[in-house]
Description:
Distance between the termini: 60 Å
Strand order of the largest sheet: 1-2
CATH class of the domain at 4-27 and 143-232: Mainly Alpha
Strand content: under 5%
Radius of gyration: 22 Å
Low-confidence stretches: 1-5
Order of helices and strands: HHHHHHHHHHHHHHHEE
Shape: globular
Number of helices: 15
Amino acid sequence: MLRPASRRADHDALVARVVTWFSTGRRDLPWRDPACSAWGVLVSEVMLQQTPVVRVEPAWRAWMTRWPTPGDLAAASTADVLRAWDRLGYPRRALRLQECARALVERHGGAVPVDEDALRALPGVGEYTAAAVRAFAYGRRSVVVDTNVRRVLARTIGGAALPAPSPTAAERAVATAVVPEHDADAAAWAAASMELGALVCTARSPRCQQCPVADLCAWRLRGYPGDEHAHRRRTQPWHGTDRQCRGRIMAALRAHPGELARDELDATIEAATEDPQVTRCLAGLIEDGLVEEGATGYRLPVA
């Protein structure tokens, strides 16, 4: 077992290599622009949850042009917000983001706080998002751990092909130990480790020959053992699921300026008349605040 000083030296070497690589290997994304507001960073983090960058970037640009401040989004109609969210997926994120904007106006005068506890108290902002905003918007030290960072640490330090399906306390301890003490170094590591996982240390086809820390990687040194958690991972189907049905309903309502009667909705999404799955999904969407039932049919919320 390495002594603490040895572990720190290994961590420092890992951080230095990855941060140096990031200085030339990173993508030029608009929310990384030094001129980007903390609100812009927060919006990007919410949009990027379970959605790839290639789909988020144009939506983020359009969103920030339309609602450049929390106050602008707070005053918007929910229907407009859901239409602007378009096909980013998981539309409840759009509702939470608008609730977050309203909370920022009411509690913080329209500014995004730097304190992690204050950030986590906002609607829709969890541990990861709060840490990411603190690091990327304000350059402060925080422990930013997403899927990409988990994979980088699992391989380079843990020697595993992939991390466990759910985060563990041990993972959290390792992630915390690796983060540099100084704000600027910690923020740089947060961005760089995420980018390494996104571009090089990918889940299915890692580009080990191009990795700046290949010679430090415990997984490589162990001979690339297989995924010990493979039996615990679930594949999520899409075709025919309620999630697909909900998405089709939302797309139909976004494209229609008024209300759609049930028979019109069924025809639009090519479902059987009074399909039980559509009925179930409509009830769920109404409960989630994403759809309203009006006098003649269904519509996006008008508030």
